[in-house]
Hints:
- The chain is an alpha/beta fold.
- The protein is built from seven helices and eight strands, in the order E-E-E-H-E-H-H-E-H-H-E-E-H-E-H.
- Strands 1-2-4-3-5-6-7-8 form an eight-stranded mixed β-sheet, sandwiched between helices.
- Helix 3 crosses helix 4 and helix 4 (136-151) crosses helix 5 (153-159).
Amino acid sequence: MPATAIREFVDHRVEPHIRGFLHLPATPNGNALVLTHGAGSNAQAPLLIALAETFSAAGFTVLRCDLPYRQARPYGPPGPGDAARDRAGLKNAIAALKKDPGAPLLPGFGRSGDFPLSGRSESKGCDKIFLGGHSYGGRQCSMLCAELAQDAPQEARNLVAALLLLSYPLHPPRKPEQQRTQHLPDLRTPALFVHGTRDPFGSIAELEQALKMIPARTKLLPVEGAGHDLGFKGKAKQEALPKQVLSEFTQLIS
């Protein structure tokens, strides 16, 4: 039996829809991770695949998902009005894993009937849900948790146990005055930040200052010599990075 089964996951019963790929570990540890992509990418990003495989091999159920804007448009960045809908899509993905991550769905689910693929006789969700994303996706993850902490603190604590933020876009390249930190004082979810030392969206020093604004446990994993792609560009891969991220994240949540 393979260490991980990977299945397509589509749910049209909810709005925004959920679309992605579910990694089911051979020996689940009761935890799940929702992973999403940056502004110009999708759920098939090599960085997300590498992390999903590594976390799943360690027992995590992992859902790599396309944000709603990417479901609507196969190419191009999100528009100015997409962010709130993208956060709603992340919240739906989290809810799906809380219900039954072992029953991924056929394409078209919700339009033509129920077709669970797992064959399991009973439904059981994951104990803890973690949320992560690269660049724009990570920013939306952090904003979702900050919004919930303001509006419904108990729901925020129950919904997401910790964040994995990859290449957080602290500011646009060459525009350090345009800080994207307004929500950080409201963020009460523990977070691991993984950031390249050559990332034009924010230096390590700038990120260290921003982390001081967060009233929750945080940890920073610098990736020496990496840019915004964290070494995953084209066929290039930082082979050791996924295991480093898993180790640091496990320490954060333990």
